Amino acid sequence: MSVAKPPASLSAVIKRARDVMRKDAGLNGDADRIPQFAWLLFLKALDDLDESREVTDPGYRPAIVSPYRWRDWAANSTTRRSGDALLTFVNQNLLPHLAQLTGSGAAGDTRETVAAIFRDTRNRMLSGYLLADLVDEVNRVSFVSADDVHTMAHLYESMLREMRDAAGDAGEFYTPRPVIRFMVGRLDPRPGEVVMDPAAGTGGFLVEAWEHMVHAADASATPAQQRAALRGTLRGFEKKPMPYLLGQMNLLLHEVDSPRITRGNALTFSAADQRRDGVDVVLTNPPFGGEEEAGVKDYFKTDYRTAETSWLFLLSVMERITRSKSGRAAVVVPNGVLFDEGIGGRIKARLLEEFNLHTIVRLPNGTFSPYTLIPTNILFFERGGPTKDIWFYEHPTPDGRKNYTKTKPLRYEEFADCEAWWGGSERNDRVETAHAWNVSVADVKNFNLDLHNPNRPDDLAHRPPAELIAELIDSERRILALLEQLQTEVADVQ
């Protein structure tokens, strides 16, 4: 029987592992170190779980077989390698074999997942001796003990946060856990419903949704029975290899059973295909501020074609929830989505006509610090339009604070007032407050949803400079979007 290590012991393992990786010339910063550590952890965790399943299920077929199992090359003192021998085995045998695994093609097949991960995974360490030391540290982690897995999951999430900080310079905007918890709680995914994140990243939304559904599962069932009942209910897409690896590791550590996470672009499907492959719940913070490659927009109708990523994801989310009777979504968007009147205006027209955009939560400045200061919002909408009126809720910063920062981030407890105001699943008890107001769709002009709180005086003299600058930047973006639209229209005429 495995004895769980105390949290301090696992923390020490991670610290020693990072110290080892800092010595290797092939790793530069956490953006290299954490993925290196993650794929080794993934193989160790998978092998530990495989060994447990082989005991309980004699017919179980593991995804990885000898001599490529962790127990064969990393945990066996007889066959353990080091130095150049280890580098040769890992680089020329292990990783190529894992990348070429083939499965049944069924959703959630572990062999398919392993192959998708390792097709883009490289061993970046140059010293076979330091790699052997790192393998020794990973061997200290047990994924058999539930306590160890739980502790490792929390420590792993802390590493992900650090890597997210490093990734911010590359334009990766990750969602703070309090925002994720709030969004999942408002949509309240139930056992049996299928939940998707089309821009899954490191799996934050899917893990939170899974835990939420496990908590809501049959209380008389065992934890194993509860999780078995949720098998295959998580769906996702992630096109970048590093977040895909980290996300699969995150899901594995949280004991998510057979998630259907596709390594690819969620936007490369026709509208009809997306509707046919629909889900009940979508939770996502898609990339914004970037552009998709030219061919992607061809999957969308001519009136909606744009290279702007956030608009294409919004269209995709609409398609995904169209067929489910309980289809609903929560999507993080930048302010530009609210005020855009070009192609964005046409997309919002469809949103308001075919769906019920019942709530827009306006997040305060700094919510996504340090990645971006762009003001952000959460759109909550559901199948069954048209929209008749929209509730806005302006989330305030704590007293005495002008904005959130990396060192003083948003806390989940600060959503308590909004949750109390929300009014349950039917949202019947809402009233206007200093932070909440209701707008009839008939009063929305040119599909501009960038509406300010009428219950708060627009006192420029007392507003934070960062907020005023952000609004000026928004205005400049709006002007630029209109000029680009005009340029396109002129080009079409010529």
List the helices and strands and how they pair.
Layout: H1 7-22, H2 30-56, H3 70-73, H4 83-99, H5 110-118, H6 128-139, H7 146-167, H8 177-187, E1 195-197, H9 204-215, H10 223-229, E2 234-238, H11 241-253, E3 260-263, H12 271-276, E4 281-284, H13 309-320, E5 328-334, H14 335-339, H15 343-354, E6 355-362, E7 376-383, E8 389-394, H16 416-422, E9 436-440, H17 465-493
Parallel strand pairs: 1-2, 1-4, 2-3, 4-5, 6-8
Antiparallel strand pairs: 5-7, 6-7, 8-9
List keywords for this structure.
single chain; 494 residues; alpha/beta; Ferritin; Rossmann fold; 2 domains; 9-stranded mixed β-sheet; 17 helices; 9 strands; 45% helix; 10% strand
Short description:
With 494 residues, the protein is of the alpha/beta class. Helix content is 45%, strand content 10%. It is globular and about 75 Å long.
Q: Can you walk me through this structure?
A:
The protein has helices at 7-22, 30-56, 70-73, 83-99, 110-118, 128-139, 146-167, 177-187, 204-215, 223-229, 241-253, 271-276, 309-320, 335-339, 343-354, 416-422, 465-493, and strands spanning 195-197, 234-238, 260-263, 281-284, 328-334, 355-362, 376-383, 389-394, 436-440. 45% of the residues lie in helices and 10% in strands. Strand 4 (281-284), helix 13 and strand 5 form a beta-alpha-beta unit. It has 494 residues and is α/β, with parallel strands linked by helices. The protein is built from 17 helices and nine strands. The protein is globular, with a radius of gyration of 24 Å. Helix 1 (7-22) packs antiparallel against helix 6 (128-139), helix 4 crosses helix 6 and helix 5 (110-118) runs antiparallel to helix 11 (241-253). The protein has a nine-stranded mixed β-sheet with strand order 3-2-1-4-5-7-6-8-9, with helices on both faces. Residues 11-137 form the N6 adenine-specific DNA methyltransferase N-terminal domain. Its EC number is 2.1.1.72.
